[in-house]
Amino acid sequence: MEQLWRQICPQIREAIGEDEFQVWVRPLRVDPFVSSRLVLVAPNKFFRDWVQEKYSSLIQEALQGIDNATNFKLVVSPQPPLPRSGRAVLPTTDAPAEARIYRTNLNIRHTFDNFVVGKYNQFSHAASQAVAHEPAQHYNPLFIYGGTGLGKTHLINAIGNHIVEHSGLTVYYVSSEVFTNELISAIRFKSLNEFREKYRYVDTLLVDDIQFIAGREAIQEEFFHTFNTLYESRRQIVMTSDMFPKEIPGLEDRLRSRFEWGLIADMSIPDDETKVAILQKKAEEEHIPLPKDVAFFLASHSGSNIRALEGYLVRLSAYASFTGRTFNLELAQDVLKDLVRVPLVSLDSVQKEVSDYFRVTIKGLCSPKKSQAIAWPRQVAMYLCRKLTNASLKEIGQAFGGKDHSTVVHAVNKIRSCLESGDSRSGEILTLDQRLTKQSSRG
Ligand code: ADP
Ligand code: MG
User: Fold this and answer.
1) Which of 148, 123, 128 is nearest to 139 (CA)?
2) Mean pLDDT of 385-406
3) Per residue in 235-281, pLDDT tens?
4) What does DSSP assign to residue 70?
5) Ligand 1 mean position to 148 CA, how many Å?
6) Peptide bond into 141 cis (omega under 30)
7) 324: helix, coil or strand?
8) C-beta 306 within 6 A of ligand 1
9) Three-state DSSP class for 75?
């Protein structure tokens, strides 16, 4: 397999260029213990995911070009690579930790200790803490709402890990997709009793991304009974979702109302300072020497997705370490110029999206009318223009029928404080923000 890999490397190098080859392909190692197919070992998970996304079809193609074509698999190295900073290698087997993962399905790396609290997640963090300290006492169910990559999975795991460490209660973490798959196979293999035993006798049930159960009748039916059984016996239920219960299409009413019984804790959009703090924490954990100006650059040039932000950091550090370049602002600007978000959103597209969403006309947005029905959409639109485009306050004012720049400042501040206070309307702002951001990244 080693030989096979050496044979196809030149082809990959040619396809992606020397630089990328050195950074992403060279560090892959062939697993010498597998001979049935090519197993490539990546130094870490981020690396594996990156290679998988960017290069797997290329590698597959190269393999197909060879006699006795085989397929390949990418795995993560079980042994952390020797760090450049000389960090001691962590033990890879930790018996109690493994037992916990096995019993609870929790990700033990997601804890409250390494969760950074900022204005945007203060509320959901506090609610999670309350539930973790005294399960089934305060908010049941706890429903954590927030956009993609904002830390919902981290938070729900932190709750679970805290409960396991501080009480004798049992905990089970599951994504609604896994719940669905397990139910389907329980039906097929006639093992529904076991399935129910597992889900209905646990003290704390954590369901990640609950929105995915919507639209499937049998799954919702089963979850409904699971929910009721747990709720009636005063067991804690925590769910996360990237939509509010009332926004989840195809969700049965009886479930929707139950999801709203306890507390809905939402997250807004992280401000740059919190993003910097998260980056610093991550850098510290990974022993990456992160200069402050680089952290600010990454924070201010990325969207609200923390996962993407972390990805940039890891990519930069990998690049610096493989090329021997100094980890500084210049390197960051160089490496990430194609990746970080360049504002492509225009004032027009914001106005159009907002007017569609609120069913008001663009003319109305630009009029001097002050009724709440039009003032709110206008303020949202001004805020989004400020956040997503390069336009100055003055230009934004002009685009809205020649309004003064102080009107724009007022609108921006108003929406900001709405987001910060977790106002019930934050959801619609967030939705619009995401739609526009998505459009611009597609464009
Ligand atoms: P979601 O489930 O909302 O899509 P995740 O919980 O998977 O997001 O978060 C994405 C990544 O960002 C994870 O690696 C997580 O640890 C990290 N992260 C998100 N929010 C924070 C935070 N406040 N502090 C530290 N890390 C965070
Ligand atoms: Mg998640």
Assistant:
1) 128
2) 86
3) 999 999 999 999 898 999 999 999 999 999 999 889 989 999 999 99
4) -
5) 9
6) yes
7) coil
8) yes
9) strand
Query: What b/e string do you get for 77-106 counting C-beta neighbours within 10 Å, with b at 16 or more?
Result: beeeeeeeeeeeeeeeeeeeeeebeeebbb
Tokens 């804790």 map to which residue?
265
Residue 71 confidence (pLDDT) above 90: no
pLDDT-based confidence at 34, cuts 50/70/90?
Answer: confident
* 8 A C-beta contact, residue 120 and residue 268: yes
Residue 315 sits at φ, ψ, to 5 deg, of -65, -45
φ, ψ (nearest 5 deg) of residue 224: -55, -45
Model confidence band, residue 65 (pLDDT cutoffs 50, 70, 90): confident
**Closest-lying ligand to the alpha carbon of 112?**
1
- Do the beta carbons of residue 332 and residue 316 sit within 8 Å? yes
End-to-end CA distance of the chain: give it in Å, rounded: 41
- Which atom of ligand 1 lies at the shortest distance from residue 147's CA? 3
Cα–Cα–Cα angle for 433, 329, 441, nearest 5°?
Answer: 25
> How far apart are the C-alpha atoms of 159 and 164, rounded to whole Å?
9
pTM over the 0.70 mark: no
Q: Helix, strand, coil % (nearest 5) of the chain?
A: 60, 10, 35
